[in-house]
Amino acid sequence: MVVGEIAIETDVVVIGGGPGGYAAAIRLGQLGQSVVLIEKEALGGVCLNRGCIPSKALIHAASEFHKLAGLGKLGIRLPEGNASFQLADWHTWKESVVSQLSQGVEQLCKANGVTVVKGSATFLSADRIGVETGGDFETYKFRQAIIATGSRPFVPQSLATDHESILDSSDLLNLQELPGTLAIIGGGYIGMELGMAYAKLGTKVTVVEAANSILPQTASHLTQEVRKQAKQLGITLKTATKVESMSRGDGGVTVALFSEANGREELTVDKAGVTIGRVPNTGEIGLGQAGVNVDERGHIPVDAFCRTNQPHIFAIGDVTPGPALAHRASKQGIVAAEVIADLPSSMDSPYVPYVIFTDPPIAGVGLTRTEAEGLGHRVKAASFPYRANGKALTLGEREGFAEVIVEEDTHLLLGMHVVGADAPNLIGEGVLALELAARVEDLALTIHPHPTLSEVWLEAAEAVLGHAIHMVNKK
Question: What does the record's cofactor remark say about binding (predicted)?
């Protein structure tokens, strides 16, 4: 490796081409900044290439396949014989989706004057960065920098993956054959999303979670329907259970478990997937040489403008404290770009929605009732069941509900949560309502189209006010 003597000068370097990084680079280009976007793999990052998009493609395909068994009640008769799921064909379709999106990002970067460099970046100082590009090494001098290097699966040494039988979340999306049996270690959102998808495709799935319930970061009343559906899919849920070790043998993977209820036991499966969290990619990019601080968990603390302790260096996305969500990273990227261009911009909203693509899916924004009461609010809340919604019944999606939480005295909306079909799309209305500081009357007075799932918000809001039409109101 030969270090070049001449540094290429640019206004801004963006390290990482995921949802946050490419959004920042494109916005900077729009604002007239010269931008170098450095990505060591494919544009779009983990989310587009190995995470969000591939996983949702698998979840969608598995759900469509699973629905085939229930088409008879709609009057649809399939040809004789059992339907099959061809994983190889799914991979071809998934790759076409990923390719289309990745090419779109590349074209947008080019159209906005962003210079894309493929290579591994390391800070050399507070204003220089080195990039290994194959056998070459280039140096860039920058006025400002944005760190958007994302995260990777957390795998403790005792559960070390071999990427063949003991897998991480990315490996689970790259299987070439459906396993007969699968253990998912970690019942958070990644584990439950993928576990339910594989169960729908015919795999016998066991989910092992150390906490007392699956989806432990989500309010228990919101996860009740997921627990019920998981059992209907034949998934074995082992909660309050720890994994002591895993070993690979001729018969598959042996997982040694311990719980207070069952003591020590062993589970042997074809494959095991470790989905117990993610860690930020901050250890190998030379942050010390740039003088950028990290906390005890490897995250980079930032202010409301996404600035690190070095005012000219910004950090966004999974490398910063907070929920590791692609839409949060994208927003942070745009904020950082606009601050660099001296525009008034900041991360000044607490309303970052969450979405869990289980069956049924869960989505929400703002406070739950328990959280609101814990903060001292006097609360009114109501929920409206999917089984009373006409559109839900025509879709065969009876399970779930929409919940609205308001401040009792002012009727200000504090939180909106939904469990059920199309929850990931429905929550957009909730985000907008809370962002606009709407009152529950604003929601109740808004005419919602019929018949649609969106009417669950209308009815829940009216239930808070005591005059829902399609349910009995509480006295």
Answer: Binds 1 FAD per subunit.
Assign 268 to helix, strand or coil. strand
192 assigned ligand-binding residue: yes
- Helix or strand (DSSP H, E) at 128: strand 128-133
Overall average pLDDT of the 65-75 stretch? 92
> Which CATH architecture group holds 176-272?
3-Layer(bba) Sandwich (3.50)
| 17 annotated as a binding-site residue | no
277 is in an annotated binding site: yes
Q: How many CB atoms lie within 10 A of CB 238?
A: 22
Structure tokens belonging to residue 280: 């930020």
What's domain 360-465's superfamily in CATH? FAD/NAD-linked reductase, C-terminal dimerisation domain (3.30.390.30)
The reported pLDDT for the residue numbered 81 is 73
Cα distances (angstroms) measured from residue 33 to each of 43, 112, 267, 342: 20, 10, 56, 11
The structural domains of the chain, with segments of one domain joined by +, span 8-153+279-340, 176-272, 360-465
Residues in the chain, overall count: 475
The pLDDT of residue 1 is: 41
| Element at 373 (helix H, strand E) | helix 369-374
The average pLDDT across 148-175 equals 92
Place of tokens 């989505």: 363
| Residue 209 assigned as binding residue | yes
Distance CA(199)–CA(194), nearest Å, equals 9
SS3 letters for 73-90? HHCCCCCCCCCCCCHHHH
Whole-model pTM: value is: 0.95
Residue 75 is assigned to a ligand binding site:
no
